[in-house]
Amino acid sequence: MARKKKTAIVASADSFIIRGLGMKLKTVDIDAEFCGLDILELQKREDQVDMFVVYLDDRVAAETDLLVYLKSVCMQKEKVVCLIGSKEEYDVVMKYLVKEMVWKWFERPLDMEKFLKEIQKFKANFSFDSLKKNILIVDDDLDYMHMIREWLKEKYKVSMVNSGTQAITWLAKNKVDLILLDYEMPVTSGPQVLEMLRTEPDTKNIPVMFLTGKSDRESIMKVLDLKPTGYLLKSIKRDELFGKLDDFFKG
Question: Which of 91, 100, 173, 222 is most buried, taking the most CB atoms under 10 A from its CB?
Answer without folding.
Answer: 100
